[in-house]
């Protein structure tokens, strides 16, 4: 059997079935450490080969295209992506203490991702300690720093359809992330009025694409149904290869628009990580306070969702009391 075919077979058996290195070694009469080395080298080769094809480079054209898709599919204007974090279960590394032990009571590394309206990863950041919160992981990631420092080349604010209100292009996220002009999160509290309840429902509807992408990734690759029993660096490589394969398959399995494959073939990969340090917040992002402009933008969007031009009646009927 040619070596390339054997390598592919080892990797597919490992990722798709969740089989251990030992069981694969027994099947092919190969030492388990040899199988592990081959899996790691193949994942690294896959990432190096596919990332230039499957991950876009930040540009105004890219974000405008993603925003149009969100508006069309999920009725959320000026949204360019959904942001969230997934804990990938790993075996506790030696001498790691509690660094990788998360609030869900297992050891993990974090996969922080931005997903577009078609359930494809735009940006991923892999390897943050499991014990850190989603917000802390965001602040220390290259993507988080680029976003907060206005380095993502997002388009200039656009008018909300049918109004004269300007809305900055933004990402939708849950309560773990900070409210910012470029990050929309739900309203806090339980005793909310109808306007805020509708906004939270609309944001949740748009944000579910990232949850669906994580779910597809976990079900397609059964390896994520159990702890990754490899070193942390190897675990990061496996996660990155799985995300690249996810994009590669979705761009070619008939789910995407016809022009998507051509677009993906000409895009370049973004830098991933790793770096540490705190984000340089804007002047009005003082600790414990939310930026006034971001609050106004969220309120304007909430009012739009209650207006004639922005209302989804079935959501209003479901949420309003």
Structure characterization notes:
With 321 residues, the chain is of the alpha/beta class. It has helices spanning 3-17, 21-28, 32-54, 60-74, 134-140, 142-148, 194-220, 232-250, 260-265, 292-306, 313-319, and strands spanning 79-89, 108-115, 121-129, 158-159, 166-167, 170-172, 183-184. A five-stranded mixed beta sheet has the order 3-2-1-6-7, sandwiched between helices. Strand 2 and strand 3 (121-129) form a beta hairpin. The radius of gyration is 21 Å and the shape is elongated. The model is unreliable at 257-289 (pLDDT under 50).
**Percent helix:** 40-55%
Average of the residue pLDDT scores = 84
List the strand order in the largest sheet.
3-2-1-6-7
Going by helix content, strand content and strand pairing, the class is: alpha/beta
Compute the separation of the termini in Å: 66 Å
How many helix segments?
11
Strand content bin: 5-15%
For the report, how would you describe the main beta sheet? Answer: 5 strands, mixed
Order of helices and strands: HHHHEEEHHEEEEHHHHH
How many beta-strand runs?
Answer: 7
Backbone CA Rg: 21 Å
- Unreliable segments of 5+ consecutive residues: 257-289
Silhouette:
elongated
Main location: nucleus
GO molecular function: hydrolase activity; metal ion binding; nuclease activity
Domain DDE Tnp4: 84-247
Organism: Elysia crispata
């Amino acid at each position: 059997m040619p070596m390339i075919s054997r390598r592919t077979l080892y990797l597919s058996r490992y990722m798709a079935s969740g089989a251990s290195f030992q069981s694969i070694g027994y099947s092919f009469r190969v030492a388990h450490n040899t199988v592990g080395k081959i899996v790691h080298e193949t994942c690294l080769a896959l990432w190096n080969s596919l990332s230039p094809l499957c991950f876009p480079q930040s540009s105004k054209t890219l974000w405008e295209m993603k925003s149009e898709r969100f508006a069309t599919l999920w009725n959320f204007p000026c949204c360019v992506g959904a942001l969230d974090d997934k804990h990938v279960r790993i075996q506790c590394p030696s001498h790691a203490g509690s660094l990788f032990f998360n609030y869900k009571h297992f050891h993990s590394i974090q996969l922080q991702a931005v997903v577009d309206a078609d359930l494809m990863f735009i940006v991923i950041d892999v390897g943050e300690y499991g014990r850190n919160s989603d917000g802390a992981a965001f602040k220390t990631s290259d993507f988080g720093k680029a976003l907060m420092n206005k380095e993502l080349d997002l388009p200039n604010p656009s008018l909300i359809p049918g109004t004269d209100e300007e809305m900055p292009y933004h990402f939708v996220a849950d309560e773990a992330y900070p409210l910012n002009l470029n990050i929309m999160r739900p309203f806090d509290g339980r005793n909310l009025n109808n306007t805020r309840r509708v906004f939270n429902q609309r944001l949740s509807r748009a944000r579910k694409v990232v949850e669906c992408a994580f779910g597809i990734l976990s079900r397609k690759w059964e390896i994520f149904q159990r702890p990754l029993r490899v070193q942390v660096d190897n675990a990061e490589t496996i996660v990155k290869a799985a995300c690249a394969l996810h994009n590669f398959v979705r761009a070619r399995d008939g789910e995407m628009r016809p022009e998507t494959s051509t677009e993906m073939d000409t895009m370049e990969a973004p830098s991933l990580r790793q770096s540490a340090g705190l984000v340089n917040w804007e002047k009005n992002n003082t600790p414990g306070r939310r930026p006034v402009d971001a609050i106004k933008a969220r309120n304007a969007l909430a009012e739009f969702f209650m207006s004639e031009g922005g209302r989804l009646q079935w959501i209003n009927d479901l949420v309003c009391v």
